[in-house]
Every structure is written in structure tokens, then in C-alpha cells.
Specification:
The chain is an all-alpha fold and about 350 residues long. Helix content is about 55%, strand content about 0%.
Length: about 350
Amino acid sequence: MNKYFLFLLITSSINSFAQNCTTPVSNDEVQIQYKKISTQPTDQLKLNYLNTWLRGQCLLSDHAYQLASVFNDDGMRLQFAYSAYPNIYDKQNYYTLFDAFNSLSYAFRFYDFVNGNVIEYQTPPVPAPLEIFPELNYPSPVGYKGVSGCSLPMSDNDFMVLVTPVIQQQSDVTRMNAATQFIQSNCVSIAQMMMLSTLIQLDLNRMKFMKQNLTKCCDIQNFSFADQVFSTQVYKNDWNGFGDATVKSMLPPPVVVVPVCMVTDADMSSIISSIKNLSFSSTKISTAKQIIQSKKCFTVSQMKSIVSLMDFEGDKLEVAKFGYDYTIDQQNYYQLTDVFDFDSSSSDLLAFLKTKK
């Protein structure tokens, strides 16, 4: 094809088009979309995907040329050129797209479109309408905050474009396999899984498909809506029981609130009164130890009050050493040296504390 001739032919017409966009899509984004489009099995699905993606996008001419190369047929390539042209950022360079056509006649047909000589632009094919799926009470994933198998579901527009290969399958088994592969490759909502399941005829196969894929959905706790796809109550009950068990297995374990370990002021008043009323030093020691062991959670300040009730220096030291393991602020236990009358008792307690580190 003579690119120079075509360039001269369309220069004036291209300049007459208004600039419709200001910021072209990045090269990285185009390469990502190129890979996704290339995986579509037919030219029609590729065109559907591109038309959906192009809405609101701004494209460089070189990128349009690259994307046109995914088509096997010049007719589909031409339809893509028609729909992409309004989204081109650098229309002055759009002549590069003419090299994408294998046939010169298609290049001239595109020239006629750009130049306005022949109006044969066709409305871009739209995805299959939602009417192919039954009218059910489909849950919305918007605002969902429960357990999730993926982060963000695909848009309904993308779903309707990409679901076509599943619809085209001829048997329950092949549709189950295609639908499962679809969910494995995309993040879907419960509503979208419900739609996929309605393409499967037998309830038994629907159940198998849905149980296999529930944990892949983004809004798993909306599972109860999906019982609408089953024709009998037996299957509905089976599904809801499975959903309940699945959600419970995925929920984090309940938070166990550990009671605060403490001895209240009222408890301390009662303890001090009980020990004070005892007559014998040996009884005071044994009672103090019994109370300390049963209550467990004393502060150093509370322990000082108990130790101070002992009659003799040796008794104080014995109870002080015993109480260490039942004190919650052990880092301050050295403060118990204040209750002793002799430095030797304080030194003995400090030596004991070193053995506890």
C-alpha cells in the first residue's frame, strides 16, 4: 500500500476532526489490555471487549495500530477503526493505522469514513443483554464488608462481554468447566456466579459448580441469595447449609476477653482486716500465703500492705518472697525493701530477686 498517497489523501480531512481527549492511556495499560484481548477466542469477542474498554479512554495512533493487529479479519479491523477513531489523541498521525489492513480496499473504506464521503459507521456491538439470564433478586456487592474470596468484582459490562464463551458451550459439563475457568480467572460477585449457574441445566450440576466456586466470590456472605437458582426446597436447604458452614469456617475466631487480673480496694480492706484480727504470727503467715495464692493479682503496693502486717522481720521476709510470683508489676518489687527494719533483710530480698531474673 502506498502510505504516502494515502497520507496526502486524508491530511485535510483529519485536520477537520476536533480533538476529543487530552490524556492518552499509558503504554503499560495498553500492553495489559492487548494481552487480555488476544486471549479472546473470536474476532467478535475481541471487538466487544475493545469497545467496552475504549469507553472514555484516549488512545495514541501507534497503540490503535497495535490493537488492530489482534483481529484476523479486515472487516472486524475496520469496525474497530471506526469505533476507535473518536478516541484518538494524535489524529494527525492516524494514517499509520492504514498499514494494519491487509487489503487496500478496506483502507480506502476507512478513508471514506474519515473524510465523510461514505457513512457506513456501525454502532459498536454491545454485550449480550441481561435478559439472557432469569430475573432473580441478585445481590449487590457494593459496600460489602464480609468475608471475601477476592477484592474487587469485575464490572457487569465486562462480565457480559467475557461470558459469551461460556454461553456458547453445548452441554452442562462443558459449561460447568468453562464457567469454573471463568471464575478462576476473574473476581466475580455472588450475582455473577448466580448468572453463570443458570447456564447449567441440572440442579445437581449447578450445586456442584456453586459449591466448588463459592469461596472465590468477593461477597461470600451474600450466598443465601443464590438459593433462587434451585428448583426444589431440598437443593435450597442443601445450599444454605453449605453456605453457613463455609462462612463459619472462614470467619476469624471470636475474640476472647481475658478478665483484668486485679485485687480491688474492697478486697484489700477485707484481707487486711482478716490478717489483723489473727493473734499468732504463724497463723498470720499461713493465712497471708493462702490469700495471696488464691487472689493472685496483687500490685507491689498491695503486697507491701500485707507484708507490713507480719509481726517479725523473718516473717515479713518469708511472705515477701512468697508473694513475688503473685504480683503483676514485678519490675517494682524492689520497693518492698521499705517494709524491713534491717538492711540485712533488704539485702536478702534483693538477692532473692536476682534469682528470679
